[in-house]
Amino acid sequence: MSLEKELAAQRDRAYQRRSPEERQVRAAAIESTARSGLAEGAVSVGDDLPRIALPDVHGVLVDVNRLLESGPVVISFYRGGWCPYCNLELRALQQNLGTIQELGASLVAIGPELPPRAAATGATNALTFPLLIDRDNRVARSFRLVHPIDAQVVSYQQRNGNNVAAFNGSDVAEVPLPATYVADRNGVISYAFVEADYTRRAEPEAILEALRKCVPSPVPLNP
Predict the structure, then answer these.
(1) Which domains does the chain have, with CATH numbers?
(2) What is the predicted pLDDT for the residue at 219?
(3) Closest to 177 in 3D by CA, of 156, 192, 155
């Protein structure tokens, strides 16, 4: 099953269990984010990769820009383990990790969750690639991805036991837009997926195709 089919099934489950009022509030919040133009103003293809040096869930600093010395890097921004769409995306990335590595690339995911929650996200989804802790969305801001969650949506989230601000160790519920990037070995963004609708994510095959384009073609032997 493609990731989009899994996401569509989750969208349907969420729609069925919500009241008409909640459906309207959430749809309006997505539309407001889309109208803001945030996605269009984010880091995109052809831009230089911003500086990324963040700790993983164990507190070990990961210098993503240094990873480029070994090959391309896939960077996925996720909202948190409380978000079912993020979990579906993270699991899909894990399922394709072997192919990503075969193409000579590294994979990291970046989110604003506090380390214990990020560690739980990794364990729940059986992830073996690094989850990096972006306190206060500092790196996500450099990608121009950060936005506050609509106040009415926050109220619904809290009723469901999801206090995003507390999960992030922050006073405000802010998250990055769902975004996936491929940076080539020169540190230039060669693929960018940025979406105002948090229920939409980059399809793994599109990521793999972008990575294949980063792999140098073999030099033909002289006849």
Answers:
(1) 3-214 (3.40.30.10)
(2) 43
(3) 192
